[in-house]
Write a structure and sequence with these properties.
The chain has 264 residues and is an alpha+beta fold. It has 2 domains: 128 residues, Regulatory protein AraC (Jelly Rolls, Sandwich); 107 residues, Homeodomain-like (Arc Repressor Mutant, subunit A, Orthogonal Bundle). It contains 10 helices and 8 strands. α2 packs antiparallel against α3, α5 crosses α6 and α8 packs across α9.
């Protein structure tokens, strides 16, 4: 993974929250939150270093340095940044948005897509029409990219909301679905059905994705793999590494090495 860029003249002083995240490139400090807003155009957000979460009415997507989030025109969304983040924002004209999904999502970033995103956000247009041509490459790469399993949907049912609120507050909580049901006054059978009908996944899968979201934040902030596994609810590092690799597509150690710009 290439070394992250040095702050450009457009970037804020490291550690200083900007009044508004600009288009293009900026270093964003850890913990910065951009409130809910929408755009008349589509928007891609990419972290060349660090990580961030995008939240919409459809749930939350987390994007480490090998993912890019997509928000179509008109969708309210907010962002929260984890670690010192080299964030790149790219507007997608409405006439190109039809080539991409009509709902928010997160996509894997191929080596070609990464370089095009960096080029479009690092430098001014050097030749008339060049940016438009590069944008069509971005759209082509996204159209061919798989959507990774980093989407955490949020429930509409009040009983399910009560259960997921408990897990959001303590992702490492090891309580069974039956025990959580007793806490919120719902049966295990009812909650299991709601997870599948309301969220489209099992209780175990939803809690695993939630834990991976928190694990990515811990790893981005420099926590060890072992400490992260324990804090996020895994009984041993091996089971954490297996789950992380299955969802993120690389081991926790490789993810941290990529953040440091280490070459395998």
């Amino acid at each position: 993974m290439p070394e992250p860029h040095q702050p450009s003249p457009r970037s804020p002083t490291p550690g200083t929250p900007p009044a508004e995240v600009p288009r293009g490139a900026a270093w964003i400090p850890h913990g910065y939150h951009l409130d809910a807003h929408s755009h008349p155009h589509g928007q891609l957000v990419y972290a060349a270093a660090g990580a961030f979460a995008t939240t919409t009415e459809r749930g939350t997507w987390i994007a480490p340095a090998n993912r890019v989030t997509w928000t179509p025109p008109g969708f309210d969304h907010s962002h929260r940044f984890y670690g010192r983040t080299d964030v790149r924002l790219l507007d997608i004209p409405v006439d190109l948005c039809g080539e991409l999904p009509a709902y928010p999502g997160v996509f894997e970033v191929s080596p070609l897509l990464r370089e095009v995103l960096l080029a479009l956000t690092d430098r001014p247009e050097f030749r008339p029409g060049a940016d438009r041509r590069l944008l069509t490459v971005v759209v082509d790469e996204l159209a061919a990219a798989p959507e990774p399993s980093l989407h955490l949907p949020e429930p509409r049912d009040d009983r399910l909301r009560a259960v997921t609120a408990l897990l959001h507050a303590d992702p490492g909580r090891t309580a069974t679905l039956a025990a959580l049901g007793r806490t919120v006054g719902a049966s295990e059978r009812t909650l299991s059905r709601l997870f599948r009908t309301d969220l489209g996944m099992s209780f175990h899968r939803w809690r695993t994705v939630l834990r991976i979201h928190h694990a990515l934040v811990h790893l981005t902030n420099g926590r060890s793999v072992t400490d992260t596994a324990m804090e996020c609810g895994w009984s041993n590092p091996s089971s954490f590494i297996e789950a992380f690799t299955n969802i993120v597509g690389q081991t926790p150690g490789r993810y941290q090495a990529d953040l440091r710009g280490e070459v395998p």
